[in-house]
Prior knowledge:
mainly alpha, globular
Amino acid sequence: MNHFExxxxxxxxxxxxxxxxxxxxxxxHIERVYKNAVSISEIEKCNTFVVRLGALLxxxxxxxxxxxxxKIGPKTAKTxxxxxxxxxxxxxxxxxxIENISFKGGNFETKPSSIELKIVQDADRLDxxxxxxxxxxxxxxxxxxxxxxxxxxxxxxxxxxxxxxxxEAPTINHFYEKLLLLKDKMNTETGKKIAQQRHDxxxxxxxxxxxxxxxxx
Length: 217
């Protein structure tokens, strides 16, 4: 089976697996990350097959929706890729991307071990900021029944990994606890350039949000 067939089969598999997923982590999220990753991979020297598979499978079973189980995503991807007769080195690389892509909170940071992981991580983080990032953040906040904003609850920038995973803070706090931090965590030059524009948009949104909240506009 050639790479083109494997990619097409992976797309079909991911669409099926995520057909009932929460709106911020559904197939359309995967598709956007995939497009971002492909664009970056056209500039950065890398294994494009690994990048494409990593982008498509990076959220195949997000731990947030599986009781915090961080092993189910890599395991699901590995089983699928084995069924497609993908070589073991590629499977190992894709699994490593899935295991290490996620943002873990303010006090937890890993250094990407490959250019392919750097690219997929940048692509995923780009979808967490800007206009789409804002929409996804409030969508997930509503999904978790969190308040939009509470001026009495300040953002916590010193959370442990577990505190970050279990946070029930207002959605606006998430901008400070994650989204506004991502610009400076991008790996590739292409990712950094795109992130800056999306970061600026979020700052403008927050300024407008607070002005409206305080009745100034």
